[in-house]
Amino acid sequence: MTEAAGKSNKYIETFLGIIEKVGNKLPHPTTLFALFALGVIILSWIVSQFNFSVLHPGTGLEIKPINLLSVEGLHRIILNLITNFTSFAPLGTVLVSLLGIAVAEHSGLIGTSLRLLVLKAPKKLLTFVIVFAGILSNTASEIGYVLLVPLSAIIFLAVGRHPIAGLAAAFAGVSGGYSANLLLGTIDPLLAGLTQEAAHIIDKSYEVNAAANYYFMFVSTFFIAAAGTWVTEKIVIPRLGTYKGDAKAEEIKPLSKDEKRGLWYTLAATSVFTLIILAGILPEQGFLRDPKTFGILKSPFLSGIVSFIFLGGVVAGLAYGIGAKTIKNDNDVIKGMNKSMETLGSYIVLVFFAAQFVAFFNWTNLGMIVAVEGANILKSSGLGPIPLLISFIIISGFINLFIGSASAKWAIMAPVFIPMFMLLGYSPELVQGAYRVGDSVTNIISPMMSYFALIIAFVGKYDSKAGIGTLIATMLPYTITFFIIWTLLFIVWFLLGIPVGPGAGLFI
């Protein structure tokens, strides 16, 4: 390592040390939401003591803060504690979509597909394929972290390249490109549900579907994959140099006959499933179109996209499992679903308190008041849409250094920023897209990211002296590059006026 690189690493370690100390002092996200809910109740009492009000921009009615410490407020809290939780939009969508994906993951389909993708990649395209596969792996949540990241290090070592470079490329795709994808994953309905809840502060009838950012994220996949490849080849590999560690190249096993058969079964099953969907949406009066207008935007297909994620995962997973003999009976399917639900225990607990916070915040009218006053300040500031959106992306990325959970951050930020931008004329879907850019690019340099410690452990296998500073120094070029490329893409997208998803325009 050069002297300059050593100094850079030292500065990064110092900076990350501060972030880690601050982040470690933050309570658990669940505790954080419980405190926020309590804080909203107390704040509602404080604000209600003042003669303070705003005019609703849509109806012109006077909006005053509601005191939740009043008798009526306390009764409302007690009577709605359960319904706040059960009616919380993201809860059901995440649980249902994950059940389907769980079948595909438990059967081995996702793991085998990733292996095939990497194994079949030409050597010249190996880095691109690894980053690309990392982005696609986000459809199945943590599979990319636990399978693709260590596998990519092994593959790089097997072809005579530095294993940490392979690890970094995969990590950049999985975590830095977290929101980009060619397919809808569990994060899409989760964020859409939170966005819809926040939009209801302004417009009770506003609907946000799970595919709200699909167009933008689909295109982003290729830009992020290309950017990740460039950083790996031009910055990371030259900096790391030749690997001189003790780790020996491992044999990457080709696909077995059963695994190949499973993939063919999957191809056949998903082809039939796709044809059924196309038969429902392509004809002018297709059975999956809107029964009144025969349009697609508000059709059962888009409105029920979570159901199709569930069914697609089940169909693909079952087909692979039968072909590969990893699923022998219904018990195996149920085991996969049960396993996914077990991993969601902490999420369900978090959602209970997040749902209360969001409900209390809405009841107090504080969201509306903050939105109206914030919108007025932004209007008077003279900042145009581009500076506003870039500033929001930066804010999202900065907060991500301290709070790792994408849903936890958005549950806090959405009730404030969504109404604020709506009052300025920008759609909730556009704001959600900007958030996802900022939330993704700093994942790979955030010690608060839930899999950060796991990645450090993987790095330690190839460099026993490696620590946080080593990983951050390796991943920082990805963060900077992704931020520049993704933000520029977002700006160009905005200037061209392209919808960010089906029925998701830029303005309201």
Please explain how this structure is put together.
It is globular and about 70 Å long. The longest helix is centred in the C-terminal third of the chain and has 29 residues, at 468-496. With 508 residues, it is mainly alpha-helical. It has a two-stranded antiparallel sheet. The protein starts with a helix and ends in a 12-residue tail after the last helix. The chain has helices at 3-25, 29-48, 71-86, 89-107, 109-119, 126-136, 143-158, 163-176, 187-199, 214-240, 257-281, 300-303, 305-324, 330-343, 345-363, 366-381, 385-400, 406-423, 428-441, 452-462, 468-496; strands spanning 54-55, 62-63.
The portion of residues assigned to helices is over 70%
Main β-sheet: number of strands, strand sense, barrel status? 2 strands, antiparallel
What count of structural domains? Answer: 1
Mean pLDDT: 84
Rg, rounded, reads 24 Å
SSE class: mainly alpha
First-to-last CA distance:
53 Å
Enumerate the spans where pLDDT stays under 50 for 5 or more consecutive residues.
none
